[in-house]
Amino acid sequence: MKNKKIRLGASPLRNSYKLVYLEFLRCCGYKSANPKNKKFKIKKIGFLRRSLKVESPPRQISEQRSGRAQKLNCDLIKYKEKILSLLTYISSLISFSLLLILIIFLIIKGIPNLSFDLFSLNYNSENVSMFPAIITTIYIIILTLLISVPLGVGTAIYLVEYTSKKNKFVKLIRLATETLAGIPSIVYGLFGMLFFVSKLNLNFSIISGSLTLSIMVLPLIIRTTEESLKAVPDGYREGAYGLGAGKLRTILKIVLPSSILGILTGIILAIGRVIGETAALIYTAGTVAKIPTKILDSARTLSVHVYNLSSEGLHTDEAYATAFILILIIILLNIIIKIIGRRTRVKI
Fold it and tell me: Could you tell me if 196 and 189 are in contact, meaning their C-beta atoms sit under 8 angstroms apart?
């Protein structure tokens, strides 16, 4: 059937019907429904049914198109989020699976080879005791953290709280820290041997190894502390300033307690690197298997002990047992530091 345009004809009855239609259109919200507008058409469908067909104005068509485009963009964003979340779950599953496989492997290989001789007070070629290495590892962790944590946290506080973002000196410090983070550990070991061992005459000692490891973990502590301080809302600082607190008091009482969990995360990562480091300590701390009595004594850590046992090829089973104890110590230290951080945050 052909469409017919609405026109005002000569018949009064017909004109009244058309005016009723136009009034109906005005009630429905079509502002352009007036007797002079000729865009409205009547379409006959069948014999007993009639419907009114209204052409949308250009503005309404553009709004409809923009609405459809926005809906398509929302659908695309949802699909992208689902894909990214799926990839994140897969990556997390792979990482957790690798860690679980490593722990299970060390449990299977290490636990059956554990014995009381491995925890003897003195080391010899028969018992290959790891007890002196455990004591040395604890000493080096404590000394390294005593040197690196104050320097790292202080540097991060200076970069975030006391300098501007456009300062060239700040950019230089950040470039230096990023460069130090990418240097291999063997280079740190050679530097420590040339500077601390030879130049400063500290010889192969715990203090030489601790100073070298402090330089290694310093970029890590600086970056993690800096990001933690940036995450503290500016409203905390403004509220403290409004109450009359000074810069230093605000940092010590408000900013640092609010970022304590991030700082502890950096410390945990630093401890993990200190415990697992081997190359740098061979050139600085030495490989003597004895309990150190002072910081100028030479000694070996657990990682160096595992390396020596596995490289000799005579005590491979004991090396697996030592590696299991090493992983166990790392897990226990991480748990202890996290518990301390949570309790500190709750008290604050």
Answer: no
Q: Provide the domain count of the chain.
A: 3
Which tokens is 338 given? Answer: 């996290």
Q: Which residue type sits at 199?
A: K
CATH number at residue 178: 1.10.3720.10
pTM of full prediction above 0.85: no
Could you tell me if 37 and 98 lie in one domain? Answer: no
Burial 83-100 (b: 16+ CB within 10 A, else e): eeeeeeeeeeeeeeeeee
User: Does 215 lie in the same domain as 128?
Assistant: yes
| Residue after which a domain boundary falls, among 20, 38, 55 | 55
- In this structure, the answer to whether residues 329 and 181 fall within a common structural domain is yes
pLDDT digits (tens, 9 = 90+) for 309-342: 888 777 888 888 888 888 888 888 888 877 877 7
Task: Choose one of 36, 55, 74: the last residue of a domain.
Answer: 55
Cα gap 239→235, rounded to integer Å: 6
> How far apart are alpha carbons 144 and 137 in whole angstroms?
10
Q: Both tokens of residue 65? A: 């198109």
How much is the pLDDT for 114?
Answer: 83
**Cα(235)–Cα(117) distance, rounded to whole angstroms?**
58
Tell me which residue range forms the domain holding 340.
117-347
pLDDT band at 251 (very low <50, low <70, confident <90, very high): confident
Which residue bears the tokens 């166990």? Answer: 328
pLDDT tens-digit map of 76-116: 777 778 888 888 889 889 988 988 898 888 888 888 888 88
